[in-house]
Request: fold
Amino acid sequence: MKPIEIVTQVLEVIAALAAAPLFLGWINQCRAWLQNRSAPSLWLPYRGIHKLFHKDAVIAEHASPLFRVAPYIVFGAMVVAAGIIPSMGTRLLFTNAADAIALVGLLATARVFLSLAAMDIGTAFGTLGARREMMVGFLAEPALLMVIFVASLISATTALPAITESLATQQLGLYPSLAFTAIAFTMVLLAENARIPIDNPATHLELTMIHEAMLLEYSARHLALMEWAAALKLFNYACIGFALFAPWGVSTGASGPGALLASIPLLAAKLALAGGALALIETVSAKLRVFRAPEFLAIAFLFAVLGLLVHLLLGA
Amino acid sequence: MTPLIDSSLTACLGLIALWGLIGLAGLLRPMSLGFVGRTLFPLGALCGAALAVVAAVSLAAPAEQLTLKVGLPDLPMHVRRDALTSLFLFLLGAASAGISVFAAGYFRRGHGTAPGLLCLQYHLFLASMGFVLLADDAYAFMVAWETMALTSYFLVTTQHGLAEIRRAGFLYLLIAHIGAIAILLSFGVMQGGSWQFTFDAMRGAQLTPHQAMIPFLLALFGFGAKAGLVPLHVWLPEAHPAAPSPVSALMSGVMLKTAVYGVLRVTFDLLGHPQWWWGLLPLAFGLFSALYGVVFAAAQTDMKRLLAYSSIENMGIIFTGFGLAIVFLGVSMPSLGALALIALLYHSLNHAFMKSLLFLGTGAVLHSTGERNLGRLGGLIHRMPWVAWLTLIGALALAGLPPLNGFVSEWLLLQAFLFSHEVPRPFINMLLPLGAALVALAAALAAYVMVKFFGVIFLGQPREATLTRAHDAGVLERIGLIWLALGCFALGLLPTLVIGALRSVVEQLSGAELPSAHAPWWLLVPLPGRRASYSAMVFFIAIAVVVVVTMFAVRLFYHRHVRRAPPWDCGFGRLNARMQDSAEGFGQPIRHIFGPFFAMKRELPSPFDPAPRYRVTAGDRIWQGLYLPLGTLVQRVADAFAWLQQGRIATYLLYSFVTLVVLLALVL
Reply:
């Protein structure tokens, strides 16, 4: 346990916790600009979370303890996930304890608890949301796993920091397999984070919603944790994307604390760009019918498998 | 230690014999539920726990052999205990201990078999499984194997009053015997002309690789029928729901593993050096079974059928690991072969615990509600908190979520797949990694199935008024569930210890030594130098710490009141339990996406129908496409031969005479 590992670890988790709502606010702002609306404040998500924490909670009469404990588990899973992903430095305490497959498992744990909590009240919307979330999840998870497989075949390890390190330190080459998987990953990111074209984060139109349908019965602090966890999830996915496809500037191996500090503005720049790109994708695409979602995700899965095949055929 | 029990082999034999005695004791007072339930079943559980301890202690011990003085004249039974046997004896003992404790509280007075008789069948079933594992000649093996099939058949048909259950039992018996014939033939080929049917003789038999393939295929068929590999799976979803829940747990959790044991014994021990391309067959069938099983599980509406299909999935994953191990070992990549073997053995252990736990959970639900149909359950977490929370552990484990045990074995299997592109065979090295995609898909679907299973039974609102009278499980039942749930936790959190214990088994099977890693006890590093590691303990503690800290922080900074109110549901006031997703509804996306898997029949009412009825059945294509035509064919052939039966003694005497003459002509 070296001091730099502890510092990097703590810094990353705190940065994720602090910056996740900001990232969400930034995306919303970009979206508003692109759609010719007046943009909401960058700090709106913070205000929302803060407001929710200060309210009395209302819970359905027949909610079980599972319903009350689920927000904490989902939030906890997302925080631990933030600790696994090398967003600033690759020297993390968690490097050995959890690899990329465990990260996918952790995200699946959060999804399962979210869905179970949604089913707990027994409302029509809750169960509908849970079913759709699991439907999206079972297609997105293998696609994500395949994306990670390609990256780990290239770098001969499944530990995410090691993947990042090997991709960051190799000379800048073009990996055709990574290009395919990047498309797959973007599609998975959109689907898993309830973005257009799979789900619309801005709507409560009952027939189309997935993620929001699961949160309908939550209020106050529980809702605040769920929203924060959702923001963290988006942040985490963005950071997984950077770790696999844009690992430049992450402080690695022997570099000193200076590199770690230098990686902070770089991460901010990457996030700003990614947020803008995400807003653009969401603006130019229309929401799919729910039953087109499996096709969308099947395409993502096939892209990832294609990436795998390209890697095996070309060795690149 | 008394001189009578001087080795672990005799200790195992003694404990297995004790099971038989406990079973026989049930006949002393066959109608007394108190005697059978409160005395004999807990004794059987103790016996199982003792067996698990003996087996665990003897895992690394050298193999022992013994010739028993029972059997036919000049054909004594041989028994042998080695690492592989010990591992599966441990599985049998540890899982059955929990199941027996549960069973002690489970069996009630009712229709069907008398408790004493049930006790006999149950313990003979246990003893026969133990003897299958110990047998060291084909004769003893087949006797034990058949006893296992027959006792479980009688257990399946406990409620023999129902025609549906008799039919399920018949189907089970039929496929069990078709499989047994294949195993018998496999032994017949393996003796290699020596006409000695001891396993030692088979180990010594010299077979060319092409000759050796025949017993391998026969064994794969025979044991695959027991394991429920697609397309030999049809008995599983019929027999598992028919049996009483502890028996389903035993069949699914333990009996299916005897098939894994058998196929490992034949392939790696009796045949010796499998060729790499043998592995492709179990690999392909395993992957297909995994996907097929989980897709069908997602579409089920009967909770025990759902679990039965999920067992098919898990056996598929185990056979995938088996195929992968053969490929790796065949192309001289011993450490990767050892990794795949560990993944498959680990998954066998895991499945024994988690699937037994879930079957027992359904048993408790069935007892308290009388319902097996998911459409009539719901909200039981309030009425049966013990069963619900313990079942949740099993469900999360089966869904392959960290830090529980299901994740560890899937992680190991995926790691093994990640290196499969290094297999030095063109094309194969590109196809193999795609298997990982299928394993990942099956694992993700398993999570879907488990959310459906747990959510529909235990969460939401009760779908029937009678469910509000449901009661939690009794003390003995709870102990059984807790035992198995603890097993899930232990296997999940201490993977290094488990793998350390599996090491001797893998060495025995493959001759390959798993390179030992210089890693601390809490860190799982399957292949040193390959930079992949996982620590369930750190993972678990990290999540727990974050969750607890968040809880305290929220409590400290934002402590506000909690008010209970009717559910909001977007302001819709007249919510009732019928508006929740049904099990059919939860399966709908799967039926939609995997449409070609199902033989779907829809009955859509016309718009003018005064009493509209909507009906959809999702049948098994293999049943309709393979089994029914096969059945018709058999019937036709039998009909054609029926004209031989004239019903007159003179004709039959003529048949005997002609046969005799033909035989004499052939011999002389």
Summary: Chain B touches chain A through 80 residues (CB under 8 Å). The mean pLDDT of chain B is 88. Residues 334-369 of chain B form the longest helix (36 residues).
